[in-house]
Amino acid sequence: MQNGILQTLALFSPLDFVGVAFLIGGWMVMGWYIERGQDQKPSTHTLMTAYRERWMEVMITRSPRIFDANILSTLRQGTSFFISAVMLAIGGCVALIGQADRLRGFATDLTGGVEIPIIVWEVKILLVIILLSSAFLKFVWSHRLFGYTAIVMAAVPETDPDSAATKSMAQKAAKLNIYAARSFNRGLRATYFSLAALAWLIGAYALICAALLTCYVLYQREFNSQSRAALLDD
Fold first, then answer.
1. Spatial separation of the C-alpha atoms in residues 89 and 132, rounded to whole Å
2. 158: which residues sit within 8 A by CB, 6+ positions away?
3. Number of helices and strands in the chain (H, E)
4. Any residues with CB less than 8 A from the CB of 8 and at least 6 apart, and which?
5. Is 118 inside a domain boundary?
6. What is the pLDDT of residue 140?
């Protein structure tokens, strides 16, 4: 088995490994950089964390809390949509691997008629499946956490908004809401990088460019976007 793995790895060039390192490294580094919550230049994700905490503080004094329930329902619906979309994408990739003959023909067209072992293309699609699977698990966990948030919100007393028990329960709901949003954002980033991984079908250079472009897009959206400027606007 070990010899088979080594033989498969030998089919890839050093540039292929560099491209995969750029992709996986960019995925992990961008996730850490966005979530680390630096004070000098916080990301949009970090800024929204404060608003989620503020939401639970305001929720205590709101009666009835139908408005809050509707917002949470909308968040869960968005998560459900991505769960379904990622499942379809994973199924499509698995079906593509199963169609070895068609995959070989498509691969030959991409490489200008150069015959490349089918296992190479299957490994490239497998990388996409791995990233999509990670996104799927993150979205599922996010959906569940939003459900936990709804239950804790329902347990927040309405009689005394200023009591310590009420504020403590609201803080628990805020933490669950923040954790759910964090898992959802991680799922989105995994989806972004799974799209970048598709560029590997064209070649290693395309994979490197796609990984760098994805990192750039994420950075712009988290640190230089108009939405972030709006959140910082006094």
1. 8
2. 63, 65
3. 9, 0
4. 119, 123
5. yes
6. 97
**What does the alpha-carbon distance between residue 217 and residue 196 come to, in Å, rounded to a whole number?**
12
Position 2 in a domain: no
Q: Could you tell me if 180 and 80 are in contact, meaning their C-beta atoms sit under 8 angstroms apart?
A: no
Residue pointed to by tokens 């759910």: 180
* 228 φ/ψ angles, rounded to the nearest 5 degrees: -65, -40
DSSP annotation of 133 reads: H
Quick check: is 15 in a domain? no
Domain presence at residue 10: no
Report the chain (234 residues): mean pLDDT per 10 consecutive residues: 66 87 95 84 90 90 85 93 96 83 66 70 90 97 95 86 86 94 96 94 90 95 91 81
Parent domain of 178: 44-225
**Domain count of the fold of the chain:** 1
| Token pair belonging to 162 | 């200023």
Among candidate residues 44, 18, 22, 43, the one with its CA nearest the CA of residue 33? 43
Q: Do 20 and 127 meet the contact criterion of CB atoms below 8 Å apart?
A: yes
Helix, strand, coil in percent for the chain, rounding step 5: 85, 0, 15
Which 3-state string (H, E, C) describes 28-73?
Answer: HHHHHHHHCCCCCCCCHHHHHHHHHHHHHHHHHHCCCCHHHHHHHH
User: Measuring CA to CA, which residue among 205, 217, 197, 191 is closest to residue 18?
Assistant: 205
Select from 103, 105, 102 the least CA-distant residue to 124. 103
> Would you state the structure tokens that stand for residue 26, as one six-digit string?
């960019």
| pTM tops 0.70 | yes
End-to-end CA distance of the chain: 61
